[in-house]
UniProtKB/TrEMBL annotation:
Intracellular or extracellular location(s): Cell membrane
Originating organism: Devosia pacifica
Spans traversing the lipid bilayer: 179-209, 280-303
Family: Belongs to the ABC transporter superfamily.
Protein name: ABC transporter ATP-binding protein
Keyword Cell cycle: no
Keywords: ATP-binding, Cell membrane, Membrane, Nucleotide-binding, Sugar transport, Transmembrane, Transmembrane helix, Transport
Domain ABC transmembrane type-1: from-to ranges: 71-341
């Protein structure tokens, strides 16, 4: 597989073997389409097989008609009466042939429509299948995949392919159909003038070579421009979102965004235009070469007819066959290079599916201890974000005893959220380990870990779903449990917010949809906290849970939290010391290391960093 890279590649950088290797994805594509609908896939193949034989049949019946007409003109005297002639039976053959040709034309039309119907239905189903597969696969990947621009580029490329790639298979089926047609036409032509086929073949080469080169250039361009295209999407997104509208207006960012969009779009446009112009010019030259070949061959057949070697019917059949063959040969050859070209894009899609999550479950996973008997321990843990050469945390050891509430404090970037990500196994540590009652998190079943640790992140998601769903998704298995949702909402004070909605729990939140209703930051936070309460988790992690709450709500949320957390283990992160002081123990972090640790009173008495920070905040209130 190619190394994932978003950097531009040029046609010359891709070896022939690599181009061929991309064709392996055709098998995966076929399986995916087959899985989508066996019936429709079989129907598409079957109908095309029948349609493949139509051209030669048409030409041959045409030849028979002409020969029959020529024969009849020889025996029928000018001005003969149609009725007498019909009754004599002389017209029987030509009538049958005409009827046959009519049937072939009608049949062909029906087949074309049936194929296009089957392909369009299959195409839509397949594009749904790919989108579902993409969603499923993305959900299995690690957080690191989503936090890395390179993987976002890959996801973007895969997403772009999801909707359109089934056309490749239609194209391959079409190719197979054309090949069968060519074989039947060529067999006819071969009987009359074998070397004409060779001539046709040679005349194709420049076009095929040119086409595959342009395909590769097109792909390289597209791929190399993925980061810019993502930026383009981003600028478009910023310019048209309710979340951004306030700042865009007040900072007067409109022109700035327009300029940035123009610059990015302009660069992409210039590249695309150059490619389109080159392709058009060379396409014209190559087409002229093959037209020349056709007329050369045509002149030859005309001469052989004049000299009496071929009948007029033969002439019609041969020139028709040659014309069709010429077109079809072109189509097939170009089709092959196009399929090869398209399969480059398939690599984007299927190599995304080949990405494997690195945080995987142990072979024989152990359950999370219920209840926790001893403690959660960070044992000499070190962690560096991928693509970062700085340790976010290093040599970190601490424990949270069963039933204890521990608070983490520290300046921005001290490593607090990183600790939460390690505790929830969104990442694995690079050094040391995180254990619960001595069992490494890596040995634990992902499901039981998720069931036992409830987290509310500072950048929690504001889903444009109903209020009930926004809370219910905190425990997807109990999403329909209204009683549980109400209890969770009561605990987090979200119930008061929801009681003000005309639709209550059925109220759609957010500004995305017509009936949606937006909330204040603090109101959203109450909903998010309720989501955390949906799970009856033993360990609750609250990362900046109350930053947007007013003082009264904060006091109340925490009053309830500490009450409810009795017997539960909790980890709190907050910059507000009024929140932090309720914890049994406070850990002060700096640069990913612990610098102080103890209950609030002890830390204040010790007069260290915590005491200073506490004093600064307290002074602000005096
Ligand atoms: N996805 C990431 N990739 C690379 N570095 C990161 C990533 N997330 C955080 N960091 C870095 O890791 C360090 C610790 O970050 P962390 O988010 O844990 O800090 P924090 O204490 O939670 O900060 P805050 O109080 O601002 O929320 C910081 O230096 C930060 O820049």
């Amino acid at each position: 597989m190619r190394q994932p890279s978003s950097g531009p590649i040029t046609p010359d950088q891709m070896s022939f073997a690599e181009r061929m290797a991309n064709l392996r994805h055709l098998g995966s594509l076929f399986r995916q389409i087959w899985r989508t609908s066996r019936f429709l896939t079989s129907a598409s193949i079957g109908l095309r097989l029948i349609k493949a034989l139509q051209p030669v049949a048409m030409l041959y019946v045409g030849k028979l008609i002409i020969d029959e007409v020529v024969r009849l003109t020889g025996i029928v005297s000018p001005g003969a009466d149609l009725e007498t002639l019909w009754q004599s039976g002389a017209l029987a053959t030509v009538a049958v042939l005409l009827a046959l040709e009519f049937a072939l034309v009608i049949g062909n039309d029906l087949l074309t429509r049936a194929i296009s119907l089957v392909d369009s239905v299959l195409g839509e189903l397949h594009s749904n299948t790919v989108s579902v597969d993409l969603l499923r696969h993305a959900a299995r990947l690690d957080l690191l995949h989503f936090e890395s621009p390179e993987y976002q580029d890959r996801l973007e490329r895969a997403r772009r392919q999801a909707a359109s790639r089934n056309s490749v298979l239609s194209q391959i089926f079409g190719q197979a159909q054309d090949i069968i047609t060519v074989a039947t036409l060529a067999a006819g032509l071969f009987v009359y003038a074998p070397w004409l086929i060779l001539l046709l073949f040679i005349s194709m080469f420049p076009a095929v070579w040119g086409e595959q080169r342009f395909n590769l250039r097109g792909y390289a361009l597209n791929r190399g421009r993925t980061p810019e295209r993502r930026q383009l999407e981003y600028v478009r997104w910023i310019g048209a979102r309710p979340e951004t509208a306030k700042e865009v207006k007040l900072f007067g960012l409109g022109d700035f965004l327009v300029e940035r969009f123009k610059t990015l779009a302009g660069a992409i446009f210039i590249d695309n235009r150059k490619l389109a112009v080159d392709r058009a010019i060379w396409g014209g030259v190559f087409a002229a070469i093959s037209t020349l070949t056709y007329y050369g061959a045509y002149a030859y057949i005309v001469w052989r007819t004049i000299s009496g070697d071929f009948t007029i019917g033969d002439l019609a059949f041969l020139s028709g066959s040659f014309l069709r063959l010429n077109g079809l040969f072109h189509q097939i050859m170009l089709g092959f290079t196009q399929v090869a070209g398209q399969s480059l894009y398939l690599d984007d899609l299927f190599s995304f599916f080949e990405l494997k999550p690195s945080i995987v479950e142990a072979d024989d996973p152990k359950p999370f201890p219920v209840p926790i008997r001893s403690a959660i321990r960070f044992e000499n843990v070190g962690f560096r974000y991928p693509e970062s050469d700085q340790w976010a945390i290093r040599n970190l050891s601490f424990e949270i005893a069963a039933g204890e509430t521990v608070a983490l404090v520290g300046e921005n970037g001290a490593g607090k959220t990183t600790i939460v990500k390690l505790l929830t196994r969104l990442y694995d540590p690079d050094e040391g380990r995180v254990t619960v009652d001595g069992i490494d998190l890596k040995q634990m079943s992902a499901r039981s870990l998720a069931e036992n640790i409830g987290v509310i992140f500072q950048d929690f998601m504001r889903f444009s779903f109903t209020a009930g769903e926004n809370i219910g998704i905190g425990n997807i298995e109990h999403m329909e449990d209204e009683e549980r949702i109400r209890q969770a909402a009561d605990r987090s004070l979200a119930a008061d917010v929801i009681s003000g909605f005309p639709d209550g729990y059925a109220q759609v939140l957010g500004r995305l949809f017509n009936e949606g209703r937006d909330l204040s930051g603090g109101e959203w936070q109450k909903i998010a906290i309720a989501r955390g309460y949906m799970r009856d988790a033993q360990v609750m992690v609250l990362d900046e849970p109350t930053s947007a709450l007013d003082a009264r709500a904060e006091a109340e949320v925490f009053g309830r939290f500490t009450g409810l957390a009795e017997g539960k283990t909790a980890l709190l992160i907050s910059h507000r010391f009024s929140t932090v002081r309720v914890a049994d123990r406070i850990i002060v972090l700096e640069g990913g290391r612990i610098i102080e640790e103890g209950p609030h009173e002890d830390l204040v008495a010790a007069g260290g960093v915590y005491a200073d920070l506490f004093e600064i905040q307290a002074a602000g209130y005096r």
